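Risk mitigation, structural track. In case the binding assays with adenosine monophosphate fail to produce interpretable data, a predicted complex structure has been prepared as a fallback.
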Amino acid sequence: MPVILKTRGELRAFTAATRREGRRIALVPTMGALHQGHMELVRQALARAEVCIVSIFVNPTQFGPNEDFAAYPRTWEADLAALTPAGAQAVYHPPAGEMYPEGFATKISVAGVSSGLCGAVRPGHFDGVATVVAKLLLQALPDVALFGEKDWQQLQVIRHMKADLDIPVDIIGVPTLRDENGLALSSRNAYLSPEQYKIAARLNKILFATAEKLKTGDIAAAESWARQEVLAAGFDSADYIEVRDAATLGPPGHGPLRILAAVRLGRARLIDNIAADAILVT
Ligand code: AMP
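Fallback model:
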């Protein structure tokens, strides 16, 4: 059973003792409702450090006013039960007032990489993410912190912030864990009915088919094909399906490409992304 840490003070005492023993610390930030994707981050964490701290904090500042903060699944008992066999030594589970005490006034905003895609549809979302991740990194001062590639734009925002602010931590991206139908595991999949699940499981297939189409080099045609396919598959709408430079998330350039999608289905907003190797015809 992991040690439960509720305050910055408890976290700091735990990390100080760990460092005194010469043991490396890995941090896995999460919002709870843990699934096998999160467990994969814990596995990768323990391959890189002796001690893994999982933070569970449903961060209010990364939700918009009309988003699902109140409804977001909270499954504390099950989360603890899952983390015990996974071997995580500590869970940091601060109350909101510990992270955002009265008078809290600072915001970290990573321009550029935050602005398009989910940043365009969810204004302020990545400021909330960058601020809370910066706080968690400064509170825990881990040697390494792990994030899922499922949230590709978030990963690029965090990498950029770490570089800009000289935060001394290794940021590790972990490939997306998918279920047997290829659906990217997500806490929000709990919102899907069985009928909706079948539609949701089409998204990854459409992305992989889009990657095939990209081999012709016609990016615009591949994107518009993907948008049509998503609607034909039964999704309510697509916030975006775009091919972008994998690191900057700007327009395709000379570096590796990524196909990124956010789609809506009932109460769920699903995101997914995969690498693409387009043969660009210029
Ligand atoms: P969340 O609790 O949704 O904020 O996710 C916490 C961390 O787990 C983030 O770094 C996510 O990118 C990562 N994560 C979520 N789902 C998956 C998945 N299916 N595969 C790999 N990592 C994931």
